[in-house]
Amino acid sequence: MKRIIAVTVLAFLPLGAVADEAETEGYSLMEEGARMFLRGMMDEAEPALRELRRFVEDMEPAMREFVQEMGPALNELAEKIDDLSNYHPPEMLPNGDIILRRKVPMPTVPDAPGETGEIEL
Q1: How much is the pLDDT for 19?
Q2: In what helix (H) or strand (E) does residue 27 lie, and over which residues does it extend?
Q3: Nearest Cα to 100, choosing from 84, 120, 118?
């Protein structure tokens, strides 16, 4: 019985070495396949990326001008709005106006002593 076990172990030892080599080779093949796939993706995306770069370069002057002109107004608006989590989602009225309602109304602070904070229209 011991001889059969020894012969069986000796017979399968070379198969273990072959399996290790196949795993290493398989990993290399998987690695090479992944490289080829990624190269192909990069080759396919390259023209689109070139077009995107050209588009961004064309838009850059217009975006700079927009930021220079609108930046101060947007900063002022952001200071007035406070935190957007204080507001309900925007609503569109039947006449097309869009309004933002506060969840909790802001307390009115009189500008000068004796004023109620109300504006007479």
Answers
A1: 47
A2: helix 2-81
A3: 84
